[in-house]
Amino acid sequence: MLKQQIAARLEQAFSQYGFAEPSVAQLKAACEVSLRTLYKHYPSKEAMIIGALAYRHQRYLDFLQQGSPATGIEAVKHIFTQLKLWMQQYAPHGCMSMNAIAAFPDNAEIILAVKQHKQDVRQFLAQQSLRADLATQLFLLHEGISSAWPLLGEEAIVSAHQTVKQLMEINL
Fold first, then answer.
1. 156 Cβ neighbours under 8 A, 6+ residues apart
2. Which parts of this chain does the entry mark as a DNA-binding region (predicted)?
3. What is 77-146 written as a DSSP string?
4. Which CATH architecture has domain 2-170?
5. Residue-wise pLDDT tens digits, 6-60
């Protein structure tokens, strides 16, 4: 349980300060634990990042499913509506996973954690849409919104809803 609490606080700290800025001492303070306890659960800054990303991954998938219609076009529209709320509340500067790769482009473990997250999101979109054949297109739309959010904001979601409707109706 303590490890999850630390991961939650690490997620908040990295989301707020980015990956380059906070020192381990700052992360320890954000987690409200001793340095020994922090290192017991996460023995390096990279391990702390991976722990924060794993925690955020599950929180994100749970968030996308909140109040969702079962499956189909309405479920996909709901995902993009939830994405809007996520970006507003938790990711106004873009995708935390992609920011992690930008900060640590040569770290294989961080890259692997991000790849797994992105694969799971793609699979989730396929399951919710009932359209495995459109999983890549829906995923690219999702990623485009995450990247464009700081510039386009809500306009990206409006466009996504239109595109989802066109994709799913044309490709029946």
1. 144, 145, 148, 149
2. 23-42
3. HHHHHHHHHHHHHH-TTS-HHHHHHHH-TT-HHHHHHHHHHHHHHHHHHHHHHT-GGGHHHHHHHHHHHH
4. Orthogonal Bundle (1.10)
5. 999 999 999 999 998 899 999 999 999 999 999 999 999 999 999 999 999 999 9
